[in-house]
Amino acid sequence: MLAQAHAEAPNECCGLLLGRGDVVEDVFPGRNIHMSPRTYEMDPQDQLRAFRLMDERGWDLVGIYHSHPATEAYPSRTDRAKALYPDARYIIISLADPDRPQIRAFRIVDAAPASAARPSDEAGDAVKVVTEEEVVIV
Amino acid sequence: MAQVYLPTPLRRLTHGQARVAAPGHTVEEALAALERQYPGLREQLREPSGQMRSFINVFVNGTEIRALQGPATPLDDGDEISIVPAMAGGA
Q: What is the C-alpha end-to-end distance of chain B, expressed in Å?
């Protein structure tokens, strides 16, 4: 993940962590179709390939990672607004200090069940709850 | 019947099933049939106007339907529809 983040800087990189439960078995690099230093969207074809691989191997989607080339490793407003996978961890790699990259993991879930009236912030986005999870590198 | 593949965030609406069968001659018909069968799915896939949400990508046999005939894309028996919510964000 770090090598990819450095290689694609100053653009954001993205990819998936595949495995079982919360244990990562494989890193699946994706293409950021925006090729932008400020936003990412993983190539849907890459997503589909990853989902097929997960089916073959019986793997879960452990996490979705992306880099923040110049900002902190915390979900931005855009990250929160566009988070559609509440079961996965969102892993953010910050290269704000390129010599000391930071990796942090978060859950991003809707504040209310989808069926209930969703609370909104001032911009009208559904409110998301962000909780940090521990990252253990083994 | 087409087979429809759903990733994890949508499986809570299909009782945990990753693959479900859907009747229909087009993508639109198959999705409408699924939406009738699984309450809540329509709200996840479409705008209130009925348009597919921009962040929902739909594939038929691995090709995005925007590159085919969109919702009118015809289906043959055994075709696979995949519904893939975007993974996106920004710093």
A: 42
